[in-house]
C-alpha cells in the first residue's frame, strides 16, 4: 500500500484545517489571541536557538526520565499482580482510583515538595504515564493461552518456564500498546509540570510568552511539543516492529 493512499487523506485534512485557520486568523487580525500558522512558523524560526538549545532538552530529559520510571514501576506492578492474587486484589482498585484524581491539581503540591527541580515535573509525568503501561502489561500477562500453559505443564515446565516462554512474549504486544499511549501522555505531563512551576522547558516558555501577550510565541513551543509527541510515538512503533518481528503488521 502506497504512502499517498495510506496517509493522503490525513495529510489533506491537516492542510485543509491549516488553510482555514490561516484564513480565519487573517480575517480576525488579532495575533495575540489567534496567531496564523505562518506567524507561528516565523516565530519558531526566530526563537529556534533558545527553543532547541535550552527549552527542548529540558522537556526531553523530563520525558525520558519519567517514562523510564513509569516502565520500571508499571511493569513491576503488573508482574507482581500476575504472580500474586492477593496483590492483584489490593493494587488493582488503587490503580483505577489513582486515575480519578486530577493530576493538574496535585502538580502545585509537588512543586512545594520538590521545588522547581526536575523531580516535580518527573513525578507528574510518572503519575500520568504509568497507568496505561501497568494495565496493558497486566492484561497481556493474563491473556496467555491456557491451552499452551497446559501443554507446557505436561512437558514438565515449571512456573518460571511458563512465565518467560509464554506469558512474557504474549504480553509484549500489550506492553507496546500501553507504551504508545504513555509516550503521548508523557508530553502532556511534562508540559503540565513546566506550566505549574519550572525555570526551563517548552511548557514554561509557552507560559512566559502568554504573560507577554505573544500569541505566536505561545503556539511555537506547543507545536514543538506536538512534534515531540508524534516523534516518540513513531519511535515506539519502529521499536515494536523491530522487536516483534513474529507479529504481523498491516
Automatic annotation (TrEMBL):
Pfam family, one: BPD_transp_1
Amino-acid biosynthesis as UniProt keyword: no
Subcellular location(s) per record: Cell membrane
Residues that span the membrane, as ranges: 58-80, 92-116, 122-141, 174-196, 216-239
Domain ABC transmembrane type-1: 56-240
Keyword Transferase: no
Membrane topology value: Multi-pass membrane protein
UniProt keywords, alphabetically: Cell membrane, Membrane, Transmembrane, Transmembrane helix, Transport
Domain of life: Bacteria
Predominant location: membrane
Species this protein is from: Metabacillus malikii
InterPro entries, sorted: MetI-like, MetI-like_sf
Family: Belongs to the binding-protein-dependent transport system permease family.
Protein's UniProt name: Hydroxymethylpyrimidine transport system permease protein
Amino acid at each position: 500500500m502506497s504512502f499517498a493512499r495510506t496517509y493522503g487523506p490525513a495529510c489533506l485534512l491537516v492542510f485543509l484545517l491549516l488553510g482555514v485557520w490561516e484564513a480565519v486568523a487573517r480575517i480576525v487580525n488579532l495575533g495575540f489571541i489567534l496567531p496564523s500558522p505562518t506567524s507561528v512558523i516565523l516565530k519558531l524560526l526566530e526563537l529556534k536557538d533558545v527553543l532547541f538549545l535550552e527549552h527542548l532538552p529540558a522537556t526531553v530529559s523530563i520525558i525520558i526520565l519519567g517514562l523510564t520510571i513509569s516502565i520500571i514501576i508499571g511493569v513491576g506492578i503488573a508482574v507482581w499482580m500476575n504472580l500474586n492474587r492477593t496483590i492483584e486484589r489490593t493494587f488493582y482498585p488503587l490503580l483505577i482510583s489513582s486515575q480519578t484524581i486530577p493530576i493538574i491539581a496535585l502538580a502545585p503540591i509537588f512543586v512545594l515538595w520538590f521545588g522547581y527541580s526536575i523531580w516535580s515535573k518527573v513525578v507528574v509525568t510518572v503519575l500520568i504515564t504509568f497507568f496505561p503501561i501497568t494495565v496493558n502489561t497486566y492484561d497481556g500477562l493474563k491473556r496467555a493461552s491456557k491451552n499452551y500453559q497446559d501443554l507446557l505443564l505436561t512437558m514438565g515446565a515449571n512456573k518460571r518456564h511458563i512465565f518467560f516462554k509464554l506469558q512474557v512474549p504474549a504480553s509484549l504486544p500489550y506492553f507496546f500498546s500501553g507504551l504508545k499511549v504513555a509516550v503521548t501522555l508523557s508530553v502532556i505531563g511534562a508540559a503540565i509540570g513546566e506550566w505549574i512551576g519550572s525555570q526551563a522547558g517548552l511548557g514554561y516558555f509557552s507560559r512566559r510568552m502568554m504573560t507577554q501577550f505573544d500569541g505566536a510565541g505561545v503556539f511555537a513551543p506547543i507545536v514543538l511539543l506536538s512534534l515531540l509527541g508524534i516523534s516518540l510515538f513513531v519511535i515506539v512503533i519502529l521499536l515494536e516492529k523491530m522487536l516483534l518481528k513474529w507479529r504481523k503488521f498491516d
